């Protein structure tokens, strides 16, 4: 992708970036890596979890100025932060010493607490504590406290923090006691990879049936009650022991991303009745593909997608059925919403995302004084490295106030809505 930026204006020429080749945020890591490389930046991508697929490796290998480093560490969020991040932290610090980047871009918040030699920024892609509340309707149990403290410590130590929506930044304040200014940098795609095809009469969804946050299972519950078939990209729910998918649905499995895009190009309707989704990465792909959108009625999706979608309360099957039936029966409305979604999606471009991150890099890469010392406790998971002593000892301090039970907003009606509740300003 041509960025339009000359490398003479780059705030840094070499970036060390962490990544995890799983889930939708991985697509944004690849998209930003491609944009940075196209702008002339050398990107060293440190992959912490399982290795990427062959297709992803081919995509990245085709990019200039991109170097992959495979770590293969356990990224279980419930693991003890000191034990879990100790080995990965040592490896990342060694990479920093050998790569000598001008900046470290962390897609994992807890690693912000490492004693980096160079400015480190954190890009947050979700809040597991907010997700727990949305799914279970109660605060996360005490076993999540270590994760909360590790996340809070990483956010406090980072030079800057970015998220794709204001709703996500508010979640960090609410659940991690983090109150410093953050920057909203919406996700973005290169629109050249998306071109709507002739739309066909089916509903498409992306999400594992076992993922209660994305709530794809709700489509299976209403599929037999609508006239069109429902195709779901994602894994089945093994705990259900179903040999066959629900009537009216076709499970496509874990499609490669390029095949996923081809399905989106043909789909007339894309549905994601999510309980929790910080931005809607698959929704962005669907919007660029000209699909009419049916989304969960949650603040983050309303913030991002505005009046370019129909919204349904996540737990109310009649509302979902009603919204899908209306789009099936009203082709003019379906076309209008598909056009509105594409126009909205085009505003979330990879060029805009790149510009946002280059500005963020510029704000921290400029000459500055020493990084502020930790006021709580430094990183405790790394072993002796006298040239990079963290400046203290002890375990991660507890976050600020523990978050009490924060019930989500309730609605008295089961009907869908075509316009979102008010939100603070425009995205980005």
Structure characterization notes:
This protein has 428 residues and is α/β, with parallel strands linked by helices. The chain folds into two domains: 12-188 and 350-388, Rossmann fold; 191-346, Rossmann fold (3-Layer(aba) Sandwich). Helices cover 35% and strands 14% of the residues. It has 13 helices and 13 strands. The strands form two sheets. The chain has a seven-stranded parallel β-sheet with strand order 3-2-1-4-5-6-7, sandwiched between helices. A six-stranded parallel β-sheet has the order 10-9-8-11-12-13, with helices on both faces. Helix 1 (24-38) links the parallel strand 1 (14-19) and strand 2. Helix 1 crosses helix 13 (350-365) and helix 9 (281-288) crosses helix 12. The longest helix has 19 residues, at 81-99. It is globular. Mean pLDDT is 82; it is low at 80-84, 368-414 and 419-428.
Name some characteristics of this structure:
428 residues; alpha/beta; Rossmann fold; six-stranded parallel beta sheet; 35% helix; 14% strand; globular
Write the layout of secondary structure elements.
Layout: E1 14-19, H1 24-38, E2 42-47, H2 54-61, E3 66-70, H3 81-99, E4 103-106, E5 120-124, H4 128-136, H5 145-157, E6 160-163, H6 166-176, E7 183-184, E8 200-206, H7 217-222, E9 230-233, E10 249-253, H8 257-266, E11 267-272, H9 281-288, E12 292-296, H10 299-305, E13 310-312, H11 317-329, H12 331-346, H13 350-365
Parallel strand pairs: 1-2, 1-4, 2-3, 4-5, 5-6, 6-7, 8-9, 8-11, 9-10, 11-12, 12-13
């Amino acid at each position: 992708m041509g960025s339009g930026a000359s490398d003479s204006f780059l705030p840094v020429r070499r970036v060390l970036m962490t990544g995890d080749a799983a889930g939708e945020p991985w697509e944004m890591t690849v998209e930003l890596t491609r944009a940075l490389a196209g702008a002339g930046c050398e990107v060293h991508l440190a992959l912490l979890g399982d290795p990427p697929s062959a297709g992803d490796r081919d995509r990245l290998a085709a990019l200039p100025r991109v170097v992959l480093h495979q770590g293969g560490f356990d990224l279980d969020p419930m693991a003890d932060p000191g034990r879990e991040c100790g080995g990965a932290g040592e490896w990342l610090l060694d990479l920093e010493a050998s790569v000598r980047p001008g900046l470290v871009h962390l897609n994992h918040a807890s690693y912000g607490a490492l004693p980096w030699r160079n400015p480190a920024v954190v890009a947050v892609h979700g809040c597991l504590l907010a997700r727990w509340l949305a799914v279970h309707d109660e605060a996360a149990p005490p076993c999540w406290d270590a994760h909360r403290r590790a996340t809070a410590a990483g956010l406090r130590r980072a030079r800057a923090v970015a998220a794709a929506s204001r709703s996500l930044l508010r979640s960090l304040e609410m659940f991690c006691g983090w109150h410093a200014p953050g920057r909203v940098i919406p996700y973005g795609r290169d629109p050249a990879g998306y071109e709507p095809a002739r739309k066909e009469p089916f509903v498409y969804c992306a999400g594992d049936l076992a993922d209660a946050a994305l709530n794809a299972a709700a489509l299976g519950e209403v599929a037999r009650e609508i006239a069109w078939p429902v195709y779901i990209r994602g894994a089945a729910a093994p705990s259900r022991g179903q040999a066959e998918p629900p009537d009216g649905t076709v499970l496509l499995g874990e499609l490669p991303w390029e095949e996923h895009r081809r399905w989106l190009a043909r789909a007339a309707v894309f549905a994601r009745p999510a309980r929790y989704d910080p931005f809607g990465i698959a929704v962005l792909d669907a919007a660029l593909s000209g699909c009419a959108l049916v989304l969960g009625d949650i603040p983050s999706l309303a913030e991002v997608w505005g009046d370019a979608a129909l919204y349904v309360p996540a737990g109310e099957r009649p509302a979902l059925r009603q919204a899908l039936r209306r789009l099936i029966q009203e082709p003019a409305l379906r076309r209008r919403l598909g056009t509105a979604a594409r126009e909205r999606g085009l505003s979330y471009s990879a060029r805009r995302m790149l510009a946002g991150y280059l500005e963020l890099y510029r704000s921290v890469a400029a000459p500055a004084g020493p990084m502020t010392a930790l006021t709580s406790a430094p990183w405790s998971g790394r072993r002796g490295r006298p040239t990079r002593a963290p400046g203290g000892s002890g375990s991660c301090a507890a976050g600020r106030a523990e978050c009490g039970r924060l019930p989500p907003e309730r609605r008295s009606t089961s009907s869908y809505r075509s316009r979102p509740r008010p939100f603070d300003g425009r995205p980005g």
